[in-house]
Design goal:
Layout lengths: L6 E2 L14 E5 L12 E3 L2 E8 L2 E5 L2 E4 L4 E5 L4 E6 L4 E7 L13 H7 L3 E3 L6 H17 L4 H19 L8 H17 L6 H7 L4 H12 L3 H19 L4 H7 L5 H12 L3 H9 L2
Parallel strand pairs: 1-3
Antiparallel strand pairs: 2-9, 3-8, 4-7, 4-9, 5-6, 5-8, 7-10
């Protein structure tokens, strides 16, 4: 398996061409065979609601069995691939960050999206009928393209994200301010993890001490601020090991490790196996 580091743009995929800032809603039955027939990345969000079908959907090396009542949330930069049965049915919603309205509660919809898991089973959740009705309305608006359909789709998308967020957050909610800070930290890590491996860089931007930042991440994510950085490094390392032909040493250099041996030790400590063993095992899948 090999995947390019290229992020396929919103404009290049789908049956109907759209521009950034637009929202595309299409039937899965017309897209069961992906336009890019190998693991690849997007530069946009893709939401997939399964109504029927079988197969698998792989997102960042995690292979999820496909079944009715599942919702998949792909974020920009994730590597994904699917193999679906010919009778699969569902609804695909694709959009970029420019399509998102601001949440009146002071917590951005993009923050909520980024905190959603890659796969959500909503079949037994009370919100499932609401989700299906909402998605059907979105599909109808996109296909009919009546007056002001773009604005209506933006509003529906906001409701969809909030319903999904509600369906996976049964635990008591943290304050909006705390959630926003955690999302800001995760966003900073996602942008700078290659060159900044230390907590101090991020805590300084957030105007917190490293200890205070770690207390926040431990409370909300059950991991230290340092572990958030290390997890992001390991995720990217695993992507590159499985989906590219880059030498292990070059992967380490790309991730900001000046010494190849340091990267090898880091990977083994964090994952429990050497980079070479991980690559060999996962390419046999």
């Amino acid at each position: 398996m090999k995947v390019s580091q290229i992020r396929h743009p919103l404009e290049s995929l789908g049956l109907v061409r759209i521009e950034r800032g637009d929202i595309r809603v299409e039937r899965l039955s017309a897209r069961t065979k992906p336009a890019v027939p190998f693991p690849h990345r997007h530069d946009f969000y893709q939401l997939l609601w399964m109504q029927r079908g079988s197969g698998f959907h792989e997102i960042d090396l995690q292979k999820h069995p496909v079944a009715a009542g599942q919702f998949f949330v792909m974020k920009p930069g994730q590597v994904h691939n699917w193999a679906l049965s010919g009778h699969a049915e569902g609804i695909i919603v694709e959009f970029s960050s420019e399509s998102l309205q601001k949440d009146a509660g002071g917590f951005s919809l993009e923050d909520r999206l980024m905190q959603l898991p890659d796969a959500i089973t909503v079949k037994s959740v009370k919100s499932a009928p609401s989700l299906e009705r909402l998605l059907s309305e979105m599909l109808s608006e996109f296909e009919s393209r009546k007056s002001a359909f773009e604005k209506i789709l933006e509003s529906y998308l906001s409701v969809l994200i909030l319903l999904l967020s509600r369906s996976v957050k049964d635990a008591p909610k943290a304050s909006v301010e705390s959630e926003a800070l955690i999302s800001q930290y995760q966003g900073l890590v996602d942008r700078h993890f290659r060159e900044q491996h230390g907590v101090e860089f991020y805590s300084e931007i957030l105007k917190l001490s490293p200890r205070a930042l770690t207390m926040r991440t431990t409370r909300h994510l059950n991991k230290s601020a340092r572990e958030v950085i290390f997890d992001r490094l390991i995720l990217e390392a695993k992507r590159m090991l499985v989906y590219t032909e880059e030498a292990v040493a070059n992967i380490g250099f790309d991730l900001g490790f000046e010494d190849a041996n340091h990267f090898s030790r880091f990977f083994k400590t964090q994952s429990g196996q050497t980079a070479q063993v991980f690559r060999s095992k996962n390419r046999k899948k």
